[in-house]
Hints:
- This protein is α+β, with helices and mostly antiparallel strands.
- It has four helices and 16 strands.
- The protein has helices spanning 3-11, 58-65, 80-83, 100-113; strands at 39-45, 48-53, 90-93, 120-121, 125-129, 135-138, 146-147, 153-163, 169-170, 173-175, 192-193, 203-205, 212-216, 230-232, 235-237, 240-250.
- Strands 1, 2, 3, 4, 5, 7, 8, 13 and 16 form a nine-stranded antiparallel sheet that branches. The protein has a five-stranded antiparallel sheet with strand order 6-14-10-12-11, with no helix packed on it.
- The radius of gyration is 18 Å and the shape is globular.
- The two termini are 27 Å apart.
Amino acid sequence: MSLSTIAAVVGALSVKFWPFQSASSGVSPSGYVCNLAYTPEILSTEPLMIYLNNFLSPYEIDHLLAFNSNWTYIPEIADPEEKLRRRTSGYRILEDEPDEVTNCIVRRADTLVGFIPSEGLELLQIGRTQQGEQHPLHWDYLFEPEPNSEGKLCNRAASFFIFLSDVAEGGETYFPHLHAPHADLPVNEKKFRRPKHKDSVGMMLRPVKGNGFFWMNMYKNGTLEERSEHAGMMVKKGTKYGLNILVEQCV
């Protein structure tokens, strides 16, 4: 099985779209208020990558983590070489849980997507990486785009990943082709670090609960942006939870 095939199998989880709902006004019966504010930082322009400070509130994170059940895992692979590339972390797709909180999160993401051509967002996906688990290098881009209900072929133009937990050790998201020019500054050491090996390159984003990042997976012509390759590093101590929000573009 080729690496591109593995990436497609692992990545192609769903082409169902989130049932976007219009905004409600005022305070909900539960007392929850949808606040769309967060603080962005541009990390890279080629490809576009934006760090998102305080993208989720503690209340929203607790709400998402209440769906902590029915985890799906990629089937075992017998070939030892291919097994090294296999995702060992679990995930859960929120198919039947649109509510005031998840709809607010979708609206918040939509404000950042802005005028990027898209058909909408995939169903929200929560990931869980326990101690000893990882998600090796991969692309969110689908090498075999999947059809939507209208027969158009859809791919993941862009991605969000939001940390739902801190991690005691490990669990960084690693982008080997990107560079964080200020990663060594003390003010940024909580959010970024460089790979420890002297010959390693790239940028590692540490799990910071409530923070996350957005990046583009494709060029305008629909081809793969190879520098969007990334990995979820092995969790050495603790458990990492994260939220995936995937932006679909169909042609």
